[in-house]
Every structure is written in structure tokens, then in C-alpha cells.
Design brief:
The structure is a homodecamer.
Chain A: E1 2-9, H1 17-36, E2 40-46, E3 51-57, H2 61-69, E4 77-86
Antiparallel strand pairs in A: 1-3, 1-4, 2-3
Chain lengths: ~90, ~90, ~90, ~90, ~90, ~90, ~90, ~90, ~90, ~90
């Protein structure tokens, strides 16, 4: 089941630099594991923003929430979720 | 070069039904040709909306505008374009 | 899988009154069938609005889109979909 | 009398961790007591958000305000209240 | 139980003038009857707008919806409902 | 001359608790004096919000600004002022 | 008593051209009479908009509403009213 | 050349009180000098807001920016600039 | 004196096709004359929109309004004007 | 390939003054190098704002993001990117 998720990151300027670097590294590892598992199918940088647009392919709403809630940067993000379905013009629709 | 494009369709209720059906059919053929050409790489329906979220991979801004401007449904759409770049956490980034 | 859906209805004033009445009746029958089937679990009127707030329990995103797209009043609605998950404070969570 | 209430929680990052944990625990107990009492009839997590969508069934406006004002997390919430009524298509309407 | 209601009226310019006049007259009578009944406790014109701000004192949400839904100008209005409670600084609170 | 005023209060979480309590007490006394004087004719709590909706009956704009500017909580408020006039449907209009 | 008023004019494209010309002429005469009377103290065109920013000096709210409601272009306008007071830095404040 | 400028002031609550008082005094002197010079032609308080609406009559855009950028309160303001032109209904237009 | 102007065009679908074509042609000639005169210094298409972003270099506000008001497509446009000044980082600033 | 970029700068008031001055100086040098390189083709100050409107001419989206992400003031900016294409009325279009 597909979802588009826009994540805008806003880390406070006074966050401890070491904690900041560590959180960003953990976030990257977390994201890459989910990409390898096939649940986080796309991640793009939005040009000029500390933001990404991602596509998730997950079992259900519960699983998507679990993934997002546990993002290491979640406390510094605003997140927007858009449920997707197959488009009738998609050539993959057969 | 990648762009996310959100298209919201709003066909007037009083449009001639034949013209409506014909425009929607032409739109589908137009989209599918661009999908086969590799420029329109994803098209998803937004759940509960007469809208799609699409990803384009085009040569440049000029080409993206040419594609969108010539959409048969363009006169009935509002369109939002978001330029994308590779995300540092993307496993495809190597 | 649960979704909250807000539907705002805006039927044009110049719609043929017979067609209007018929569409509203078909909408009611359509909604009630889905309620009996257990997919449309709640429907509430928003006070002072030609709107409803509904809760759906469906198999997946595809099914939710199919239900909403085929609403007889869909061409006159604006629709907002919110995916829901179990809340950790819900006493039903055990 | 039914109300939909959307609560968005935004706990400051610099809140003392012990106070934070304690407040969240008190909030949970407070919510579950009202659920058992039948006044807080539904609570759902909004996917990807530190938010919930809840349905309250209360005596009147005064009681709803009393419940919300005394939420342990109230100082960190923004709250949106929507009064609901029975929908004519509700099969429970008889 | 008190509610503030803001009503913005937007009658289409091409409405039949007789129907327009009649609807406005019926609306006035409808409002004045509810004022005399004690349910529509205040009605003020918003300066420079075809709008009013009103205060209702009604039994419950159902009754408020019934009143608003049956406003002769309802099809031409956008309506915003705000539930009110007694303020602790109100000298009438004793 | 009548005005509706919506006041949203947002006291910073780190305000000294004693100052906070004192400011709220002064605000209450200030409001009640103006109520007794007949200038602050209504004050209602907005359900679920740290907000009030008030009606003022004052000599002129200057007086209204003087009252609002001197509210003890003014530095922590956002304020929205709506000038009102008599509505032609008001039964008090004679 | 001073008010700033922003008026945005949106005359429908299908309005009868004669009625359009006549309404604009009546509006001009109406405005100029009020300017000569000293109630409509400033009128400026907003650059690039079919809009004006005006300053009114009137007896009270009732009079301002009477002036605005009777504008010949009122049915085609959206109007925003801002009550003004003397600024403490105004050199005219003495 | 005329411009309307809306200035909303938001001085942080934790600003040193002496610096605060001094900045406000400097702002007043700065504004009054420009009023005497004929460049800052009107300044009004917006009722219920820490805001002013002002009219400037300046040589060009560069000069307006220079004036606004050097406002002592500029770091604490949000500013909105609207270019104005003579209105065809202005009786001063001859 | 420089201004950025964003123009969004929205020609009604039911406009007579001949009038439509003629208006667009007149608009083009009008724009190109002003470009040759050096007042309309840049015009860019906004990708995916029936919109342009333009830069004007004009004598004053009056002249900018005269140019915009007389655009053949003005009745079908919404227009947003932003006054510009020289930026201190501009290498042309010397 | 052209892009319009609006940058709004919001440096926290409590930033160390030396760091502030240094960051602004580095930003200026960074911008001027890119201007000399022909990638940052225009930079204008928005009148009355700590903002600029800029035009970039870059190889692709990746390069634009690289430029913006490395702006010394990027952590204190909100950035809005608009892809541009040649306008059919541009006299340079031949």
C-alpha cells in the first residue's frame, strides 16, 4: 500500500552539535535499512529545502505510523501523509 | 532531472459529455506515451481526490513546461511543481 | 484499516431539482449499504455545514478510493482523507 | 452530545524529561478514565503526527470545556472542536 | 448552551429578483421568531460585510443544526460555528 | 458602539509561576471592573481554547484601543477586532 | 473616528456593459460626494489591482456600515475594515 | 510616490527592559523626524494590535527601503508594503 | 525603479474563441512594445502554470499601474506586485 | 536553466554578534563569487523585508540545491524555488 510522505526538518539551532550529528547519522541508517527492506521505496530531496518527499510501500496504516513515529528526527519534523492508489492511466495497470 | 507534480482536475459540470469523455481519453493516451518514453516515470491517484501525484524525469525546465502545457486536461487543472534532487540517504546514491 | 474522511458538499444552485433529489437519494442508499457492510463505520453531520465527518474501515487505500470515487455526490464534494492508527491510550488497545 | 476534537501535541524539546514522562503518563490515565466513563468514546492516532482525533459524548459545552481544559498536556496542545449531529443517512437513525 | 455563529451571505447576482426579495423576507421572519423564542439571543451586522455574528442559546447540537439547516438563506451562506462556555471572569458567574 | 473581540492567550511555559498567577488575577479584576462599568458587555470562553470571545460597547475606537492595550495579558495575546452594527433583522431594532 | 477600508472589486465579465459603465459612474459620484462631505478622507488605487485603500472619518460604526452597504459596486466587492486610533508617535498628537 | 506600510511589532518578552524602552524611544524620534520631513505622511495605530498603518511619500523604492531597514524596531517587526497610485475617483485628481 | 510582478491568467472556458485568440495576440504585441521600450525588462513563464514572472523598470508607481491596468488580459488576471531595491550583495552595486 | 528563488532571512536575535557579522560577510562573498561565475544572475532586495528575490541560471536541479544548501545563511532562511521557462512573448525568443 503506497503513501507519499513529505518531511520538513527543523532542527533547533541550539541543539548540541554532537547530538545533532549523531541523530542525523542514525536517521540515515534507519532510512537506508527500510529502503533495503523495500518499505521506503523512494526518497528525494526537495530543492532548496531541508525536506524530503518519500514514497512508502507498507502493509497498513499501523506500520506506516510505526515507521514515522520512530524516525530519529521525528521530534524536529513536520510530516504530511498522502494515501495513494493506482492511477487508471498508469501503464503498469495493464 | 526529477520533478514532483501534483495535478488537481476540476472539469466544469456543464462541459459537453462527449467532449469530456474525449478529453479524458486523449489525456490517458498522452500520459501513457510519455510513460513509455520514460519521461513520466510515476503516476499515482491521490485517494479520495480527482488528483494525481506524478514524477517526471526530463531534460530541463523547458521540456517539463512543454509537457504540462500540452496536457489535454491542462485548462481544467491546477498544477504544482516541485523540483527534486538526489537525497544523501538514498541507497542508490552509492 | 481506519480513515477519517471529511466531505463538504456543494451542489450548484442551478442543478435540475429532479436530478438533485435523485442524486441525494442514491447517495443515501449507497452510504447505507456500505454501513451495513461494515466499511462505513460512522457518519456524522457537521453542525451548521452541508458536510459530514465519517470513519471508514477498509481493506486498503485502493478500496477507500473506490468507495469515495463512486459516491453519487462525488462531483460536488471536496474530500479530505486522514489515515488513522490505534492510539496507545485507547482502552481497547489492551 | 457529540463532538469531534483534534488535538495536536507539541511538547517543547527542553522540557525536563521526568516531567515529560510523568505528564504523558497522567494524560493516558486521565484519558482512559474518561473512556471508561463513556464520555471519551473514540481516540485514534493520526498517522505520522503527534496528534489524535477523538469523539466525545458529553452533557453540554461546559462539560466538554472542563474535560479539555484539564488535560495534563493541554498547555502543549492546539485543539480544534467540531460539534456533530446525527446524519440523515446514518442507519442508526432508524 | 451557547454558540457563536458567523454567517456570510453570498446570493448569486443572477438569482431571480423576486425570489431574492422573498427569501430575504422569509429569512427575517424566521430569525425574528427564533429571537422571540429566546433561542437566537443576539444578531449583529458585521460592518462592511453581508454577514452577521449571532449568539444562539439552544438545547443541544441537534437543535442548533436544525435551526441553521433551515435558514432560508442557508444555500447561499457559509457558516462557522464556535461552541461557547461560561468564562471564569464573567461577573455573572457569581 | 459595539465590537466583537476574540482574544487568544498564549502565556510562555517558562514565565515565572508567581508572575503568571498575579497577571491572571489582575486580568480578571480588570475585566470585571469594565463589565461593571458596562463597557465589556459579554465575555465567553471558547470551548477547548485558552481564548475568549467578548463584546464591547464603547464610546469610540480610541477607547476600545485603550482598554485592549492595557489588558494585563495583552503581551501574551493575539487579538482580533470586528466592528459591529445593528442588524436589520434584530427585533430590538423596532 | 477613523477606519482603513480595503475594497477589492470583481465585476463579473458577463455583466451588461451599459449597466457596468453606469454602476462605475454612480460609484464615482457617490465616492466624490462623501469626499466633499469629509467622511471619505483618502482614496488610493492599489498598484496593479482593481482595488482601493481608503480612509474614512465617520461618526460611528453604524455610519460606516451605511456608507459601505450603499456603495453601487458593493455587490461586486470584497471589503476589509480596520478600525484605527491615534498613534503615540504621531506628531499631530501634540 | 505613495506607499501604504503595515508594521506589526513583536518585541520578545525577554528583551532587556532598558534596551526595550530605549529602542521604543529612538523609534519614536526617528518616526517623528521623518514626519516633519514630509516622508512619513500618516501613522495610525491599528485598534487592539501592536501595529501601525502608515503612508509614506518618498522619492523611490530605494528610499522607502532605506527608511524601513533603519527603523530601530525593524528586527522585531514584520512589514508589508503596498504601492499606491492616484485613484480616478479622488476629488484631488482634478 | 524595479518591481517584480507575478501575473496568473485565468481566461474563462466559455470566452468566445476568436476574442480569446485576439486578446492573447494583442497582449503579446503590448508586452513586446514595452520590452523594446525598456520598461518590461524580463518576462519568464512559470513552469506548469498559465503565469509569468516579470521585472519592470519604470518611472514610478503611477506608470506601473498604467501599464498593468491596460494589459489586454488584465480582466482575467490576478496580479501581485513586489517593489524591489538594490541588494547590498549585488556585484553591480560597486 | 532558470529558477526564481525567494529567500527570507530570520537570524535569531540572540545569535552571537561576531558570528552574525561573520556569517553575513561570508554570505556576501559566496553570493558575489556565484554572480561572477554567471550562476546567480540577479539579486534584488525586497523593499521593507530582510529578503531577496534572485534569479539563478544553473546546469540542473542538483546544482541549484548544492548552491542553496551551502548558503552561509541557509540555517536561518526560508527558501521558495520557482522553475522558469522562456515566455512566448519574450522578444529574446526570436
Amino acid at each position: 500500500m503506497l503513501f507519499a510522505v513529505k518531511m520538513d526538518v527543523n532542527i533547533p539551532n541550539d541543539l548540541d552539535p554532537e547530538l545533532r550529528a549523531e541523530t542525523i547519522a542514525t536517521e540515515k541508517a534507519y532510512s537506508q535499512q527500510l529502503q533495503r527492506d523495500g518499505e521506503w521505496v523512494h526518497i528525494w530531496r526537495v530543492v532548496g529545502q531541508y525536506s524530503n518527499l518519500s514514497i512508502f510501500d507498507v502493509r497498513d496504516n499501523e506500520r506506516l505510523h510505526e515507521i514515522l513515529w520512530n524516525l530519529p528526527l521525528f521530534p524536529y519534523m513536520s510530516v504530511e501523509v498522502t494515501p495513494l492508489a493506482q492511477h487508471p492511466s498508469d501503464i503498469a495497470a495493464g
